[in-house]
Design goal:
Layout (H helix, E strand, L loop, with lengths): L7 E4 L7 H12 L6 E5 L1 H11 L5 E3 L6 H4 L4 E5 L16 H16 L5 E4 L4 H6 L7 H11 L7 E6 L2 E5 L9 H4 L2 H19 L5 E5 L14 H15 L3 E6 L7 H4 L4 E4 L2 H11 L5 E5 L5 E4 L16 H20 L2
Parallel strand pairs: 1-2, 1-5, 2-4, 3-4, 5-12, 7-10, 8-9, 8-10
Antiparallel strand pairs: 6-7, 6-11, 11-12
Helix pairs in contact: 1-12, 8-9
């Protein structure tokens, strides 16, 4: 099995959800080819879930990332951080919340010090974490918080991908009615700079081609359907072009995502959540990956939630986790080769 560079750290996420299911299935799919990864989580949970799913999986506790490669072909390596009590598949337990956070902390710390080549996060149950005092919106801003606490710069930007289609929502988890007020030229400029810088390194491109979507139907129809394109989006694009970025738009969103249009850009910068996520989930519903750009380490995640009703049933689809691990491996390798 080919292996170069540090192994990928996977935080197990919500232990009663499908995180254990999909990492077990991902290991079965990738154990001969890689990328090599290890779990930060509870080894007992993984063993019990494997038995429930009827998987002949070996779980191997390891002392750290360096030991993962030696066992990966025959066993799933786990930095064992036990939960305070057993897990029931499909039934979240608030007693697990602090451990879930600790698993994220440890995976990020290993990536920050270079012991892990990347971080892949299995889904978390935000409601359980919020009730336990978790004050962050989710994985993305929490990982940025951890990076800043370690003295590193962090400008997190969410990128979704399915195959060669990549999209970035400028605004994320806010109501649609609040999007126009949240959009500013500075927001668009900041995100585009992060996209251009990081994807140049991760994709090995000299210049990243960015296509920018309009907010309104027909990109505003020259102001007849809204002035955001004129007053906010176009000025941001002009600033970025003056800086030398390869960026075009704003384009009507309804004509940006067919095959011919996608060939003209490397990433689409969209104005709101569904504008970015619907194309990705249409093109590759089971292969979608969430990547956080703007962090000092590689982070990817499957583009799905905890799916509590599927946990332990064998019905969970592992392809998004497999894609997240594969992309993390590709990005980690590109980052090492780039040397930045």
């Amino acid at each position: 099995m080919p292996h170069d560079g540090p192994a990928i750290a996977v935080s197990l996420g919500e232990p009663s959800g499908i995180g254990p299911d999909v990492v077990l299935m991902a290991h079965d799919a990738l154990k001969q080819t890689g990328p090599v990864f290890f779990i930060v989580g509870d080894a007992r949970v993984l063993g019990e879930r494997a038995e429930r799913l009827g998987l002949e999986a070996q779980i191997e506790p390891v002392a750290g990332p360096a030991a993962a490669a030696a066992v990966f072909a025959s066993a799933l390596p786990v930095i064992d951080r036990p939960l305070p009590r057993p897990v029931i598949a499909g039934t979240p337990d608030s007693a697990a919340a602090s451990s879930v956070i600790d698993w994220i902390d440890e995976a990020a710390a290993l990536a920050l010090d270079g012991s892990a080549g990347a971080v892949v996060t299995a889904p978390i149950n935000k409601d359980v974490l919020y009730k336990a005092g978790f004050s962050h919106q989710g994985h993305t801003d929490y990982l940025a918080h951890l990076a800043r606490a370690a003295g590193c710069a962090a400008e997190p930007v969410m990128m979704l991908s399915a195959g060669s289609l990549r999209t970035v929502p400028a605004t994320v988890h806010i109501a649609l009615k609040d999007v126009p007020a949240a959009l500013t030229p500075d927001l668009i400029v900041t995100q585009a700079r992060v996209i251009a810088r990081d994807l140049s390194r991760l994709l090995g491109l000299e210049r990243v081609r960015i296509a920018v979507a309009g907010l309104n139907p027909h990109a505003g129809e020259a102001g007849a359907m809204g002035r955001e394109e004129i007053d906010i989006i176009a000025p941001a694009i002009a600033r970025l072009k003056a800086e030398g970025l390869s960026i075009e738009g704003p384009f009507p969103a309804d004509t940006m995502f067919h095959e011919e249009a996608r060939a003209a850009y490397d990433v689409a910068l969209c104005m709101y959540h569904d504008q970015a996520l619907i194309p990705v989930k249409t093109v590759g519903f089971y292969e979608g990956v969430n990547t956080t750009l703007g962090l000092p380490f590689i982070r990817t995640s499957p583009d799905h939630g905890t799916a509590l009703t599927l946990a332990g049933t064998g019905a969970a689809n592992p392809h998004s986790m497999i894609a997240a691990l594969a992309l993390a491996g590709e990005f980690a390798r590109a980052s090492r080769e780039d040397g930045r």
